[in-house]
Amino acid sequence: MNKRQRKKRAYKHYIRAIFEGYEKMLEDSSIKELHFSYLKETTYLERDDQDKIHFTTKED
What we know:
It is a single chain. The mean pLDDT is 94. A hairpin with a 5-residue loop joins strand 2 (41-47) and strand 3. The protein has one helix at residues 3-27, and strands spanning 33-38, 41-47, 53-59. Strands 1-2-3 form a 3-stranded antiparallel beta sheet, with helices on one face. The longest helix is centred in the first third of the chain and has 25 residues, at 3-27. The protein is an alpha+beta fold and 60 residues long. Helix content is 42%, strand content 33%. The chain is built from 1 helix and 3 strands. This is Phage protein. It comes from Enterococcus hulanensis.
């Protein structure tokens, strides 16, 4: 498997993990935040005071 395919597979796993984390947060309101990393990018899923879920992506 070449480098491009590995990167593509890792990115798909990253995106899938974000959405699975989002679903988990919808089912379990006690989870206040989750974070996922891919290369130099980190995505945070956080709840606000009204328990709404927000996505924030930052570059490291």
